[in-house]
Structure formats: structure tokens, C-alpha cells
Design brief:
about 190 residues, alpha+beta, 2 domains, five-stranded antiparallel sheet, four-stranded antiparallel sheet, 7 helices, globular
Length: about 190
């Protein structure tokens, strides 16, 4: 692939024959052989979508129009899986560790978004052109918390839906791992 020609469309930088891509607020470097380097832990939940993102070479500007997962092409058959394996675990993690959960989202590049009625509305960029908008409503009275994860309407230009699910699972696994050790890890992460 001609990395130089696809870099800008992916929101990446090209330097020295390699792509430098912001992923979860951190830089990942990919060479032409598919080798990936980063200062943070690299796992399959992130690496496979990252490589697919490069292969697809999407080049559509973000629309800023947030849609549910099921509105993406070829997503209807796997929407329940996305809800069960990505959204619901994120909701449970947010409910059990609300402040820490949203601190983690911020540490990994998340930004508050205005204009939503949710208690928390934060966008995170697992990949530069595949943002996830996390909307979270705290439990109230007899009602449990609720969460929606929305995507830019162009998400399926950059990733097939299976890889969007993998990226969502990656976020879940990353948050779970950090929360399982949060007393030890959070002070160091907050200093990043």
C-alpha cells in the first residue's frame, strides 16, 4: 500500500515509510509489513481493527451525524451482539465505577460533548475516523443506569462492522483490566 497517499484520509501521519496513527489517545506506528509499535500494551482487540482500518483506506470526512450501530451497513444481523458484548459491559463498568470509568475515557483521549441529555456525554477516538460517542445516564430510583454508544455515520467506510465490534470489545477489555487494578494504576495514569 502507498502509505503516503492514504495517510491524510485516515487521519494519520506518514513519516519514514511508516504510518503514525492516534489510537485511544496514544500513537501507534505501523510499517508496510504490518508490524505495530506503541508505548502502550498492544492487544488483538486494537491491532486487528487498526490494520483493517489501514487496509480499507477510507477517505470520507466525518459527518458529525451520530447513528446507532444498527444503522451501519451490514450491522442489523450483529446489532444484538454489539449491544450484549460492548454496550452492556461498558454500562456495567460505568455504573460500578462511574468516576473512574469516565476518568479512564478522558485519559484515553475522550472529550465531553454538549447537546445531549445524558449525565455523561463523552466521545472517544479508538481510531481517528471511528469515534465512539458514549452516552450514560446514572441510575435513578428504581431505574438502573442506561448507556448508548453512537458512531459517526461514516464508521462503516473505515471499518467493517465486525471490526467495530472488536474495537468496542477492546475498550471493554482495556477498562476491565485497568479497573481490576485501579488503586495501583490510576495515580500513574492520571499523571500521563
Amino acid at each position: 500500500m502507498d502509505f503516503r497517499s492514504i495517510a491524510q484520509g485516515l487521519g494519520a501521519e506518514y513519516d519514514g515509510g511508516r504510518l503514525h496513527i492516534q489510537c485511544l489517545g496514544k500513537i501507534f506506528t505501523v510499517d508496510r509489513s504490518g508490524n505495530v509499535e506503541s508505548l502502550i500494551h498492544i492487544n488483538k482487540w486494537v491491532i486487528l481493527p487498526l490494520l483493517q482500518y489501514i487496509i480499507m483506506g477510507g477517505n470520507a470526512p466525518l459527518t458529525g451525524r451520530w447513528v446507532s450501530f444498527e444503522e451501519l451497513k451490514r450491522a442489523s444481523a450483529v446489532t444484538q451482539y454489539f449491544e450484549r458484548r460492548c454496550v452492556e459491559p461498558l454500562r456495567q463498568l460505568a455504573e460500578s465505577h462511574t468516576d473512574i470509568f469516565f476518568d479512564l475515557i478522558t485519559i484515553f483521549g475522550g472529550k465531553d460533548v454538549a447537546g445531549f441529555s445524558a449525565d455523561y456525554a463523552r466521545v472517544i477516538y479508538p481510531l481517528p475516523r471511528v469515534p465512539f460517542l458514549i452516552l450514560y445516564w446514572k441510575p435513578e430510583g428504581h431505574f438502573e443506569s442506561s448507556m448508548k454508544v453512537l458512531l459517526d455515520s461514516t464508521a462503516d467506510v473505515y471499518l467493517e462492522v465486525d471490526f467495530i465490534i472488536a474495537l468496542g470489545r477492546g475498550i471493554v477489555e482495556m477498562v476491565k483490566k485497568i479497573l481490576s487494578r485501579h488503586e495501583e494504576v490510576m495515580p500513574r495514569l492520571m499523571g500521563l
